Amino acid sequence: MTPISQANGTRVQRDVVSFVRRSTRMTPKQRRSWEAHHDDFVLNLPQGATDTSIAPDAQVNLAAAFGREAPLIVEIGPGMGESLVPMAQARPNHNVLAFEVYQPAVARIMAKLAEQQVGNVRIIRANAVEGLERLLQPGQLDELWTFFPDPWPKSRHHKRRLVTTPFADLVASRLRPGGQWRLATDWQDYALQMRAVLDSHPAFDNDCAAGWAPRWPQRPMTKFEQRGIDAGRHIYDLAYRRR
């Protein structure tokens, strides 16, 4: 953990996180989107020690937040929402909860949601690991999407990768029996790590007899994914089901 300073001058320990810390500076257009749509889509929660953490005693009533009871899908790190928005739009009978830490990305997502009149998405601007642990109940989750998480390519940074056995334990506790976890990455060694973690995990079955899943046609091609393909990287899809 890394010590950081708070406004009152005290020092706290910042946990190692799985996402790269980037600038939160917004353009004027993103600022307008944030101000216009924040109340419609963003769930405000008490913060922990940092601006991307969630207070240990935080709670959220998802039925109230969405205005209904419905099967729950969570996406971790949807970026600018290129795939999140059309995938949520195609699933009007599901509630879709997105964890995205970057405020400019959230502003872009909200603009797309408003433009496409997609009303079944809510966003939490915080660390998804804390969100799953502190906000969701056991068995509450129907499906988890983890598409192109930060790869942390350097060996010394692999400990920062999201998909680890402890995280798989957490996901298993939140998925209902029969619930699905879909993943994708364009980094081979990370794909192999995902396979090693999940193939050996007692709570998950690989949905694909061949091991690797075919590309999921319901996931729209994004600019990010296309850049990986253009750079010569293979896209690895995986699909696991909670026992």
- Fourth-level CATH superfamily: Vaccinia Virus protein VP39
Strand line-up across the major sheet: 5-4-3-6-7-9-8
Oligomerization state: single chain
Provide the CATH top-level class: Alpha Beta
Specify the CATH architecture: 3-Layer(aba) Sandwich
Average pLDDT taken over every residue: 91
Function: Catalyzes the formation of N(7)-methylguanine at position 46 (m7G46) in tRNA.
Pathway: tRNA modification; N(7)-methylguanine-tRNA biosynthesis
Pfam family, one: Methyltransf_4
EC number: 2.1.1.33
Write a concise synopsis of the structure shown.
It contains eight helices and nine strands.
Word description of this protein:
The longest helix has 14 residues, at 28-41. Helix 4 (103-116) links the parallel strand 4 (95-99) and strand 5 (121-124). The relative contact order is 0.14. This protein has eight helices and nine strands. Residues 1-14 have low confidence and may be disordered. The protein has a single domain (25-242), classed as Vaccinia Virus protein VP39 (Rossmann fold, 3-Layer(aba) Sandwich). It is globular and about 45 Å long. Helix 1 (28-41) crosses helix 4. It is an alpha/beta fold. The protein has helices spanning 28-41, 62-66, 84-89, 103-116, 128-135, 165-174, 188-199, 223-230, and strands at 2-5, 11-14, 72-76, 95-99, 121-124, 141-147, 175-185, 204-206, 236-242. The strands form two sheets. A seven-stranded mixed β-sheet has the order 5-4-3-6-7-9-8. A two-stranded antiparallel ribbon has the order 1-2.
